[in-house]
Amino acid sequence: MSNLWAKVLRDLRNPLFLQGYALMANTVITGVLGMGYWLLAAHFYSPEEFGRGQAVITAMRLFASLTALSFVGALARYLPIGGRRTPELILRGYGLAAATGGVAALGFLLTLPLWGKTYSVLAGFGPGLFFLFSVLVWAVFTLQDVVLTGLRRATFVPLNNLIFGLVKMGMLVAVAGALPSGGIFVSWVIPTALALIPINWLIFGVIVPRHVRQADPTQEPPRLREIGRFLSGDFPGTLSMLAIVYLVPVVVATQVGEATFGRFSMAHTLASMIELLAMNMAVSLTVEGSFDRNALAMNCRRALRRAFMIVVPIVTVAILGAPLILRIFGDAFAEEGTTLLRLMALAVLPRVLIEVYLSALRATSQARLLALVQIGLAVAVLASTLTLFPIFGVNAVGYGVLFSQLLVALLIFGNLRKILKIGQTGRSVVTQGSSGAA
After folding, report:
1. DSSP codes of every residue in 275-343
2. With contact defined as beta carbons under 8 Å apart, do 139 and 109 qualify?
3. How is residue 85 annotated by DSSP?
4. CA distances from 163 to 27, 39, 155, 238 (A)
């Protein structure tokens, strides 16, 4: 036991592991509080309102993430070396993400009748304006965590989301009687808006000034043209990945009833939280790779070992215990969601390989290859899901994700092995990475 504790303490002195563990802890906290939130929602709201709330929140996150998710890679890549331009990079990211999400949400609201009965709750000026506000808020909220991570302050992320989750659960119960038909969405958005104030005060009032003071004065901050070239390659790929995370559930919501979507969404949400664990260490890897490219290969090997060490037991529990986990929400959830949860949990294992590879590409600015891998994965998931949906229904999402991630992991495995061996052969990762840069 003492050896394990000593190993953990040694890991925490390494920024790669400290950041990665903080983000993993955040995922666990978010997952536990998320389950509690949806358990309360299932108790206080009807199955139809439960499904409608899930659908509207998914749509909000889709539009808010249109540009926000593409800035996740860019901010993780360039904030560590941002120097005096750090505040400008953050504000530009916030502004572009909010503006793009707002325009997309406005287009959605103007074409609302085309999106099915589930989204009719957003009809009218008041509900539409509130939805538009929620998209702007969530766009900034999405980038807060990666800003903290890019500035090596990821330890604040779980604390922020712990408080946010508890406030969100309290508001869910508080408004259940007054807003039986919209309480879920309101209880999600208001705490999100309130959370922006203290966290951005911390970022711009404390962390950014300290980061700028500690920056290497001899290092030239990244130019906007350089960041633009990176985004031109990363954005199409990230947009494709966005289709997997948010567009697939929105499409499912247009094809099934509200109650069925609620049960699908619960299994999908739980599986997505497990997948986030695979992505957490990868985000930390991008940050540390930006600080020190020569250590990238060694950090890739470390990230893979730690990620599999943590993810494999969780995936095993999810596969074996899927019916019991989902039965907490009700028998219907277990009957309709067990297969989906098992398939998507199993798909996390190849996703670990993919995410580590993508982070290595980001750290070495190989934007074109980065886009190619992400677009290929998204096309495979969407094509296989749409092909299998008439046969397997909502479980087609699980089969599509598993097949696609296994296929892409096999295709990138050779290149990943080369990256992992660079440090062992003494070759410079910078040279290896720059040769394919956009």
Report:
1. HHHHHHHHHHHHHHHHH-GGGHHHHHHHHHHHHHHHHHHHHHHHHHHHHHHHHTT-HHHHHHHHHHHHH
2. no
3. G
4. 14, 18, 14, 29
What are the pLDDT tens digits along the chain (438 aa)?
455 455 555 655 555 666 667 777 777 787 788 878 888 888 888 888 888 888 888 888 888 877 666 677 677 777 877 778 888 888 888 888 888 889 989 998 988 888 777 788 888 888 889 999 999 999 898 888 888 877 878 778 888 888 888 999 999 988 887 776 778 888 989 998 998 999 999 999 988 898 888 776 666 777 777 777 777 666 776 777 766 776 778 778 777 777 777 788 788 888 887 777 767 666 655 555 555 556 667 777 877 887 788 788 889 999 999 899 888 888 888 888 899 999 999 999 999 899 888 888 877 777 788 888 888 888 898 889 889 988 888 889 899 999 999 999 999 998 888 888 765 544 443 333 333 333
Alpha helices in 79-223 (DSSP H): 86-110, 125-150, 156-174, 183-202, 208-214
47-78 vs 183-202: helix axis angle to the nearest 10? 20
Provide the residue type at 152 as one letter.
R
Q: How many alpha carbons lie under 13 Å from residue 273 in its C-beta half-sphere?
A: 19
d(CA 374, CA 358): 8
**Residues in Cβ contact with 148 at an 8 Å cutoff, skipping those fewer than 6 apart:** 154, 156, 157, 160, 199, 203, 207
- Claim: this prediction has a pTM higher than 0.85: no
Q: For residue 269, give the H/E element and its range.
A: helix 258-291
Q: Tally the C-alpha atoms within 13 A of residue 63's C-alpha that lie toward its C-beta.
A: 24
The residues near 320 (Cβ < 8 Å, ≥ 6 apart) are none
Q: State the residue for tokens 């593409």.
A: 70
Torsion angle of C-alpha atoms 106, 111, 113, 115, degrees rounded to 10: -80
Q: Are 183 and 176 in contact (CB under 8 A)?
A: yes
Q: In whole angstroms, what is the distance from residue 66 CA to residue 348 CA?
A: 23
C-alpha–C-alpha distance, residues 282 and 146, integer Å: 12
